[in-house]
Design a protein that fits this description.
alpha/beta, Rossmann fold, Nucleoside Triphosphate Pyrophosphohydrolase, 3 domains, 9-stranded mixed sheet, 11 helices
Length: 497
């Protein structure tokens, strides 16, 4: 591959010397390499080494460096720079370096992998050049906005997860010293260690785990428009991110909510709603955990990462926009339908963007069971909508449909219908006659129960059995019994069944 270095300099805001002629930039990269490279000197392979600036920093730390670059001119400059150190520089293809079966302790590559025709296959080949316990240090990114070039971090992490014993990523865009100025695009490093011992059994399948927050405001959810990430830029998506090493999925979604939209959520504020296995077009599989939180929990959301998000906006769940990431759109539609486990398995050639009328790649894994819906005929739909609509929304139901004289609210697989039917006979509801006595719903804890009871009178509800509240159902049964203006009763029960 022949590279026009002047063109690349314009792309990277850099030069073939990685900008390391500047003392501040050089020291910044030296600090990073001190963290990334093993403390014990070893055999290091610098692929696409250019004029050898990073090779020199590694050699100064005692590593035995082999550099490879396709440009003979670059190789000559690197050899001159590394003279006096335990180093050699070869002319060759970084994708298939001419190292004649040698193995290394570290492979270092900066802004190289994205230029190769099959990065995943290249990574597999590079892993074969490492000793057990060897390390990959990869610096990559995504540059440009109109026609972005590079490799998104998600793709690189997904490719390395099945083979790495340990792996972590570092965002580099925010460190101006590394680039000699402020940069807005995505720049990152991935450090991956291979297992210290060869596997005695076939390598087990591994997948990236990501978390997503469904922040609900009545019938609406909060979406963020991606920007500068290299994946789905310009499209709407839920606030989301990866689970970091040592994190559980609930801790991860709370952290992402703080980092992306400034919310200080607690474990009690979030509930797991959907687990979805997803594969993007031509990419690796991943597991997505989707959590729900109610608007108001943790504060007012705001765009806390303007370098990754252009805007935040609210959208009706029943009227989602088309300019969404297909993965996110499929998850929200599965959640709205009450699914708990699902697949979204895209094929090569599919679009990252949702395509109305395109192939449906979603598969529900949980068959419908339990209650389908409850329908209440009410004498005055407007009054029922004011009282029931408020309460159902507070309990996590999402408005699904509305028609003349009726509407429905869904929570999971089941929904509640309120209708002022023209076929209804005269006479009001009497919960003491044969028929429906009341509906009962879960509430999370006593504090939530007290909050709803305090607000209920303002929405047309009155408290039944006030002299025995909240134990009108017995000493071990903490609940509230409410009645609306038409005589319908609901029971709000604290805790798990």
């Amino acid at each position: 591959m022949t590279i026009d270095w002047d063109a690349e300099a314009a792309t990277f805001d850099d030069e073939p010397d990685h900008g390391l002629r500047d003392a501040v930039v050089r020291e910044a990269w030296a600090e990073r390499l001190r963290d990334w490279l093993p403390n014990t000197p070893g055999d290091l392979l610098d692929l696409g080494c250019g004029t050898g600036s990073l090779s020199l920093l590694a050699a100064e730390r005692g590593h035995r460096v082999t550099g490879v670059d396709l440009s003979p001119n670059m190789v000559e400059l690197a050899r001159e720079k590394l003279s006096g150190h335990a180093a050699q520089v070869l002319v060759g293809d970084a994708g298939e370096p001419p190292v004649e079966g040698r193995l290394f302790d570290v492979i270092l590559a900066r802004h190289v992998l994205w230029m190769l025709p099959d990065p995943e296959e290249t990574l597999r080949h590079w892993c074969g050049l490492l000793r057990p316990g060897g390390r990959l240090v990869l610096v990559e990114g995504v540059w440009g906005t109109e026609n972005p070039a590079g490799i998104p971090a998600d793709r690189l992490i997904g490719a390395l997860t099945p083979v790495a014993g340990q792996l972590h990523a570092e965002r580099l865009s925010g460190d101006e010293r590394l680039w000699g100025k402020r940069v807005e695009d995505e720049r990152y490093a991935v450090i991956a260690d291979l297992p210290a011992e060869p596997a005695r059994h076939p390598v087990r399948h591994k997948e990236v785990v990501d978390v997503h927050l469904i922040l609900r405001r009545g019938d609406e959810v909060l979406l963020a428009r991606r920007a500068g990430t290299g994946y789905g830029d310009g499209l709407l998506n839920l606030p989301s991110g990866h689970v970091e090493p040592g994190e559980d999925v609930r801790t991860a979604v709370i952290r992402e909510a703080r980092e992306e939209i400034g919310l200080a959520l607690t474990p009690d504020d979030v509930s797991a709603e959907l687990v979805l296995q997803h594969r993007g077009p031509g990419g690796a599989a991943r597991i997505g955990w989707f959590f729900e939180a109610a608007y108001g929990a943790g504060g007012e959301p705001f765009n806390a990462e303007p370098d990754k998000c252009d805007e935040l906006s609210w959208h009706g769940v029943a009227e989602l926009p088309d300019d969404m990431v297909a993965y996110c759109r499929a998850a929200l539609e599965a959640w709205r339908a009450g699914e708990r486990f699902a697949l979204h398995w895209q094929e090569a050639g599919d679009a990252v963007r949702y395509e109305r009328g395109g192939a449906d790649r979603s598969v529900a894994l949980t068959p419908a069971r339990g209650a389908h819906h409850v329908e209440l005929w009410v004498p005055d739909f407007a009054a029922a909508e004011a009282s029931w609509g408020w309460l159902l929304g507070e309990l996590g139901h999402v408005r699904e449909q509305r028609w003349q004289g009726g509407g429905s609210w869904r929570r999971g697989a089941a929904y509640v219908v309120l209708e002022q039917s023209p076929d209804m006979r005269d006479g009001g509801h009497d919960r003491l006659r044969p028929g429906l006595n009341h509906l009962a719903f879960h509430v999370r804890d006593r504090a939530e129960l007290d909050r709803l009871v305090a607000r209920a009178p303002g929405h047309g509800w009155s408290l039944l059995f006030p002299e025995r509240h909240p134990f009108a159902g017995g000493e071990e049964h903490c609940a509230a019994y409410l009645e609306d203006g038409a005589g319908f009763e609901v029971e709000l029960v604290v805790g798990a069944p």
